[in-house]
TrEMBL record:
Family assignment from sequence similarity: Belongs to the prokaryotic molybdopterin-containing oxidoreductase family. NasA/NapA/NarB subfamily.
Gene Ontology molecular-function annotations: 4 iron, 4 sulfur cluster binding; metal ion binding; molybdopterin cofactor binding; oxidoreductase activity
GO cellular component, one term: oxidoreductase complex
UniProt cofactor(s): [4Fe-4S] cluster; Mo-bis(molybdopterin guanine dinucleotide)
Name of the protein in its database record: Nitrate reductase
Gene from which this protein is expressed: nasA
PANTHER family reported in the protein's UniProt record: NADPH-FE(3+) OXIDOREDUCTASE SUBUNIT ALPHA, RESPIRATORY NITRATE REDUCTASE
InterPro entries in the cross-refs: Asp_de-COase-like_dom_sf (IPR009010), BFD-like_2Fe2S-bd_dom (IPR007419), BFD-like_2Fe2S-bd_dom_sf (IPR041854), CT_Nitrate-R-NapA-like (IPR041957), MoPterin_dinucl-bd_dom (IPR006657), Mopterin_OxRdtase (IPR006656), Mopterin_OxRdtase_4Fe-4S_dom (IPR006963), MopterinOxRdtase_cofactor_BS (IPR027467)
Classification of source organism: Bacteria, Pseudomonadati, Pseudomonadota, Alphaproteobacteria, Hyphomicrobiales
The keyword Cell cycle is annotated on this UniProt entry: no
Domain of life, per lineage: Bacteria
Protein species of origin: Mesorhizobium metallidurans STM 2683
C-alpha cells in the first residue's frame, strides 16, 4: 500500500471490542501521534488510556523481524515451505485431524477468513479454534439457543437511550471505557437513568451504579431466574410478544418459579431487600439494556447465564427496541469478525452451521473445496489436550499467547513443548509461547497492515496501515495464503490483497442467503481496491440491494440505511419456526472450595494493561497505574491468613501457584481472591495466573470457567524486600519474587527474597559495576537496610533499596530520578537515602496515566478544596484527557470526604 505520511490515517483501535476510530499521523521525523476519530460512530473522538497511549507501543523493541526455524534466521521461502510440507506430510500420514490451528480475535477478518477456509475447506478438518473460546463462546451458544443465530440485536445508541442499564459481570469502566463514558455522559444529561452492577467485587464501575449487587460467584442464573419469576408474579410480562414470537415460556417460568425469594437470596448471597430493589426496578423500566461480559461467559454455567438473561428480555418484549435489549459486549477488537468468518471449531463460515449438510454443501460449492469438515473440531481446552496426548502433531498458533491465557497453563505449555511441530506467527520475538516454536513467523503489527474488524455493535471498520512493515514482517493473511498455495491449493488461495478476501467473505455471506441468515454483507461482494480503501464504518446486515427480504413480511430488521438496525423487535428469529426459544435453565451452585482450598479464585483485568502485556507493557505511562501483579484480598481473609497489606502472598491451587503482592481492600468480596490475568514470565517471576486455573468448561459452549476456582492463600515469608529503578532491563533476576515494569527512563523492579544474600554482590548483579561508574552504598546490617545507587557521571544507572519489610521508598519519586541530572553530590546522596530531596514531590501511585498525576497529588488538591472531578481536572489536568481515571479520582475525593466527616 501507498503510505502518505503527511495525512492523518483513519484506522481502528486494536484493543477492545468497543472498536473506537483512531486518527494516526506520522510526522516527518517518524514520530507517530494518535487521537480519537471525531467522526467514528463508536467513540465520536473519545479514546481511553490504552487508546491514547497507542503511539508508545509501536516501537520495534523486541519485534520478530525475520522468519526463524529452530532459532535460525531463514528467508520466507524456506520457512513457508517447511510449514507447508510438514503440515501436508502430517495430514498424509495421520489424517487431517492430526493438525490444528489456534487463532485469535485479534486477527483481522481477512486473516481469519483465509485461515478458516484453509482448515475447514481444504485440509478438511475443523480443528481450528480461537482464543474467543475463552471469551465469547458462551454468548455465542446462548444466542444460538435463543435466537437460532449468533445475533447481537442492539446498538451502542441503546446504552444512551435506556432508562436502566444492568451490568452483569462487566467491569465496563476499565474494560470498555468508552462505552462506560458514553453511559456516564448520558446519565449526566438524564439523571433519572439508573445503573445496576452485578459483580462479586466493588469495581471502579460501581462509580456509576445506583445499586451494586455483590453477587456470590456464579449466582447469576439464580438471580435472573428469580427475576423471571418476579416479572410473572408482578404482571410485568409482554404477553403479546411471548405468544406471537416465542416458544417455551411456560417451562422456563415453571422452572424459575420453583425458587422462592429466600432460595434466591441463599444462592446469590444477596439480601431479599437487594433482590426486590433490583427486580422492581427492572419490572418497572421498559427501556432496559442488560450488558454482560466475562463474569457471565467465563463460567461453567456461562451459557445458562446468557439464556437466563435473554429469557427476561424475551418475557418483557425488550429486545431490538430503542434503549432495550440484551447486549453481550465483546472483548477483542475482532471477536465479532471471527464469529462472522466461522473461526470457531463448531461453526462453518458466514454464520452457517457445520452440522447442517445443506450449509456444508453450500460453503463447499462456494469455495470449490475438495473437502469440507464434516463435524465440529476440537475446542481450545480439548485441542490442547489432544496436543498433549499426541493426537495433534502439528500446531499453528497465530496472534495469541496460550502459554499465558489458557487454563491449566503449565499443562498447555508442556503440551506445546512436547508437540513435534509448532509454528507461531507473532509480532514479538519472545513471548511465553513464541519461546517454544519450531518455526517463528514475523507478523505485521497494527499500523502496518490493512483489513477490517467488527465491533460489539456489528459495525465493520477498516484498520489501515500508516507505517511500512519492518524487516521481513508480513500480514497474517499473506502468510496463511502462501502456506495454502504451497500445500497445493493454488487457485483457491490466489488472493493478492485483503480487498479480495473481504470481497469473497462478503460474497459468501450473501450467497444463497435471501434473508435466511442474519449475517449478510452481500452489498460489499464487489468491493474494489478503491472502495475498500475508502470504506466507511458500517453495520451489518448490509445485503446486496437486489436481495429479497426475508421473511416476506420482512421486519426481522428494517432495511433503513438512514437509521440504526436492530433485530427481533417484531420477532422473526432465525429458528425453523421463526420464534425465539426460552430456555428452562437450572441454577447450578458449584462448590469448588474445600478445607484445603478454601477461597474462590476470580481472575480478570486492570485498566491500563491488555492481556499478556505484549503491547501495554511497552508503555511507561500504562505501566505506572498498576506496576505489579497482585491478589485482591478482603480484610477479613487477610486477617484470617495473617497477611498484611503489601506482603507477598502465595496463591495456589491443585494446578499451580503464583507469588503476588497483597492488596487488602474491602472492595473485595469476603472469601474471594482476585488476580489479574496480565503478568507473564516476561514481567514477573511467577505470576501466570492461568497456571492456577482449572480446565473446567461450560458443557455447552466449551468456555473455561476462569472466574471461579478454588485456591489457598499463604503469606510468603520474605527475609528481604527490595525495590529498584534501572536504566537498562537486567539480563536476569535472581530472586524468588520479582516484577518488572517500564518507566519513563528505564525499568522499575519489585523484589522479595526468602533468604538473605551477600547484598553487595546482589546489587552488582542487578546494577552492574565498571571502572567508569561510582556506586554509593548505605548499610544498616542490624536493621536489615541496604541501599545502593550507581552513577555514571551525573546519570543514575540504577538504585536498589532492600529492607526486611516492604520498601517504603516513594516509587514515583525514584522513577523520576532515572532521567534526572545528578551533578550535585548532595542529590546523589539523597537517592541512597531513598527520600525525596528538599523540593521533591512524592506523587504517590499514578492514577491519571495521561498526565502522570499521583494519588497523593489528588488527595492534596482535595485537602486544598477541590470537591469534584472537574475541580481536580482544572487544577491538575488529571482526568481531562481520556477520562479513564475519573472513577478513581472520584473514589479518592469520596474517601477524603469520609475521613473529614469522621
Ligand atoms: N483494560 C483492559 N480492557 C480490556 C481487556 C484488557 O485486557 N484490559 N481485554 C478485553 C477483552 S478480550 C475482554 S473479554 C473484556 C473483558 O471485560 P470484562 O468482562 O468487563 O472484564 P473481566 O475483568 O475479565 O471480568 C469482569 C468482572 O466479572 C466479575 N465476575 C467474576 N465472577 C463473576 C460472577 O460469577 N458473576 C458476575 N456477575 N460477575 C463475576 C469479576 O469480578 C470482574 O470484575 O475486556 C476487554 N477490554
Ligand atoms: N485466567 C484468565 N484467563 C483468561 C482470561 C481471564 O479473564 N482470566 N480471559 C481470556 C480472554 S477473554 C482472552 S480474549 C484471552 C486473551 O489472551 P491472548 O490472546 O493469549 O493474549 P494476548 O496478549 O492478546 O496475545 C496476543 C498475541 O498476539 C500477538 N500479536 C499482536 N498483534 C498481532 C498480529 O497482528 N498478528 C499476529 N500474528 N500476532 C499478533 C501479540 O504479540 C501476543 O503475543 O485470555 C483469556 N484468558
Ligand atoms: S475503549 Fe479504549 S481500548 Fe477500547 S477501542 Fe476504545 S480506545 Fe481502544
Ligand atoms: Mo476476551
Amino acid at each position: 500500500m501507498q503510505i502518505d505520511e503527511a495525512r492523518e490515517v483513519r484506522t481502528t483501535c486494536p484493543y477492545c471490542g468497543v472498536g473506537c476510530g483512531v486518527l494516526a499521523k506520522v510526522a516527518a521525523d517518524g514520530q507517530v501521534t494518535v487521537r480519537g476519530d471525531p467522526d467514528h460512530p463508536a467513540n465520536f473522538g473519545r479514546l481511553c488510556s490504552k487508546g491514547s497511549a497507542l503511539a508508545e507501543t509501536i516501537d520495534l523493541d523486541g519485534r520478530l523481524l525475520h522468519p526463524e526455524i529452530h532459532g535460525r534466521q531463514t528467508g520466507w521461502d524456506e520457512a513457508l515451505d517447511r510449514v507447508a510440507s510438514t503440515f501436508s506430510q502430517t495430514i498424509a500420514e495421520h489424517g487431517p485431524d492430526a493438525v490444528a490451528f489456534y487463532v485469535s480475535g485479534q486477527l483481522l477478518t481477512e486473516d481469519y477468513y483465509v485461515a478458516n477456509k484453509l482448515m475447514k475447506g481444504f485440509i478438511g478438518s475443523a480443528n481450528i479454534d480461537t482464543n474467543s473460546r475463552l471469551c465469547m463462546a458462551s454468548s455465542v451458544a446462548g444466542h444460538r439457543r435463543a435466537f437460532g443465530s449468533d445475533t447481537v440485536p442492539g446498538n451502542y445508541e441503546d446504552l444512551e437511550l435506556a432508562d436502566l442499564i444492568v451490568l452483569v459481570g462487566s467491569n465496563l469502566a476499565w474494560c470498555h471505557p468508552v462505552l462506560y463514558q458514553r453511559i456516564a455522559a448520558a446519565r449526566e444529561k438524564r439523571p433519572e437513568m439508573k445503573v445496576v452492577l452485578v459483580d462479586p467485587r466493588r469495581t471502579m464501575t460501581s462509580d456509576i451504579a445506583d445499586l451494586h449487587l455483590a453477587i456470590a460467584p456464579d449466582g447469576d442464573v439464580a438471580l435472573f431466574m428469580g427475576l423471571l419469576a418476579y416479572l410473572g408474579q408482578h404482571n410485568a410480562l409482554d404477553r403479546a410478544y411471548i405468544t406471537a414470537h416465542t416458544t417455551g415460556f411456560g417451562q422456563a417460568l415453571f422452572a424459575a418459579s420453583k425458587l422462592d425469594l429466600a432460595g434466591i437470596a441463599a444462592a446469590t448471597g444477596l439480601s431479599e431487600d437487594e433482590l426486590v430493589r433490583f427486580y422492581s426496578l427492572f419490572a418497572a423500566t421498559a427501556k432496559t439494556v442488560t450488558v454482560y461480559s466475562q463474569g457471565v461467559n467465563q463460567s461453567s454455567s456461562g451459557t445458562d447465564k446468557v439464556n437466563a438473561i435473554i429469557n427476561c428480555h424475551l418475557a418483557t418484549g425488550r429486545i431490538g427496541k430503542p434503549g432495550a435489549g440484551p447486549f453481550s459486549v465483546t472483548g477483542q477488537p475482532n471477536a465479532m469478525g471471527g464469529r462472522e468468518v466461522g473461526g470457531m471449531a463448531n461453526m462453518l463460515a458466514a454464520h452457517m452451521e457445520i452440522e447442517n449438510p445443506e450449509h456444508r454443501d453450500r460453503v463447499q460449492r462456494f469455495w470449490k473445496a475438495p473437502d469440507i469438515a464434516e463435524k465440529p473440531g476440537l475446542k481450545a481446552v480439548d485441542m490442547f489436550k489432544a496436543v498433549a496426548d499426541g493426537r495433534i502433531k502439528a500446531l499453528w498458533i497465530m496472534a495469541t499467547n496460550p502459554v499465558d491465557s489458557m487454563p491449566d497453563a503449565d499443562a498447555v505449555e508442556a503440551a506445546i513443548k512436547a508437540c513435534p511441530f509448532v509454528v507461531v506467527s507473532d509480532v514479538l520475538a519472545s513471548t511465553d509461547t513464541v519461546r517454544h516454536a519450531h518455526v517463528r513467523l514475523p507478523a505485521a503489527a497494527w499500523g502496518e497492515k490493512d483489513g477490517t474488524v467488527t465491533n460489539s455493535e456489528r459495525r465493520i471498520s477498516r484498520q489501515r496501515a500508516f507505517m511500512a512493515m519492518p524487516g521481513e514482517a508480513r500480514p497474517d493473511w499473506w502468510i496463511v495464503a502462501e502456506v495454502a498455495r504451497r500445500m497445493g491449493f493454488t487457485e483457491a488461495f490466489s488472493h493478492v490483497s485483503p480487498t479480495e478476501l473481504f470481497a469473497e467473505h462478503a460474497a459468501l455471506s450473501g450467497f444463497e442467503n435471501d434473508g435466511a441468515r442474519d449475517f449478510d454483507i452481500g452489498a460489499y461482494a464487489a468491493v474494489d481496491a478503491q472502495a475498500y480503501d475508502a470504506l466507511e464504518p458500517f453495520q451489518w446486515p448490509a445485503p446486496s440491494p437486489g436481495a429479497p427480504l426475508w421473511p416476506p413480511e420482512g421486519d426481522a430488521w428494517a432495511r433503513r440505511p438512514e437509521g440504526p438496525v436492530r433485530f427481533f423487535a417484531n420477532g422473526n428469529f432465525y429458528t425453523p419456526d421463526g420464534k425465539a426459544r426460552f430456555i428452562a435453565v437450572r441454577p447450578t451452585v458449584e462448590t469448588r472450595t474445600s478445607p484445603d482450598y478454601p477461597l474462590i479464585l476470580n481472575t480478570g483485568r486492570v485498566r491500563d494493561h491488555w492481556h499478556t502485556m505484549t503491547r501495554t507493557g511497552k508503555s511507561s505511562r500504562l505501566s505506572q497505574h498498576i506496576a505489579e501483579p497482585f491478589a485482591e484480598i478482603h480484610p477479613a481473609d487477610a486477617q484470617r491468613f495473617g497477611i498484611g497489606d503489601a506482603d507477598i502472598v502465595r496463591v495456589s491451587t491443585v494446578h499451580g501457584e503464583a507469588l503476588l503482592r497483597a492488596l487488602v481492600t474491602a472492595r473485595q468480596r469476603p472469601g474471594s481472591v482476585f488476580v489479574p490475568m496480565h503478568w507473564t514470565d516476561q514481567f514477573a517471576a511467577r505470576a501466570r495466573v492461568d497456571a492456577l486455573v482449572a480446565p473446567i468448561t461450560d458443557a455447552i459452549s466449551g468456555q473455561p470457567a476462569s472466574k471461579n476456582g478454588a485456591a489457598r492463600l499463604e503469606r510468603f515469608a520474605a527475609a528481604a524486600f527490595g525495590f529498584a529503578v534501572l536504566a537498562e532491563r537486567p539480563a536476569s533476576i535472581d530472586a524468588d519474587y520479582w516484577s518488572l515494569a517500564r518507566c519513563a527512563a528505564g525499568w522499575r523492579l519489585e523484589l522479595a527474597l526468602q533468604a538473605g544474600r551477600d547484598w553487595t554482590a546482589f546489587a552488582a548483579s542487578l546494577l552492574g559495576a565498571d571502572a567508569q561508574s561510582e556506586t554509593l552504598a548505605y548499610h544498616d546490617a542490624a536493621g536489615g537496610h541496604y541501599r545502593f545507587a550507581r552513577f555514571t557521571g551525573s546519570r543514575l544507572v540504577g538504585a536498589l533499596y532492600l529492607a526486611p519489610v516492604p520498601v517504603a521508598v516513594s516509587r514515583s519519586w525514584a522513577v523520576e530520578q532515572l532521567g534526572a541530572d545528578h551533578a550535585d553530590r548532595r542529590g546523589r546522596l539523597a537517592i541512597v537515602a531513598g527520600r525525596p530531596g528538599g523540593n521533591g514531590v512524592n506523587r504517590g501511585a499514578i492514577v491519571c496515566s495521561c498526565f502522570g498525576t499521583g494519588a497523593n497529588q489528588i488527595a492534596e488538591a482535595v485537602r486544598g478544596g477541590c470537591a469534584s472531578v472537574a475541580a481536580i481536572g482544572a487544577v491538575l489536568g488529571a482526568g481531562t484527557n481520556c477520562g479513564s481515571c475519573r472513577a478513581e479520582i472520584r473514589t479518592i475525593i469520596d474517601a477524603r470526604r469520609l475521613q473529614a466527616a469522621e
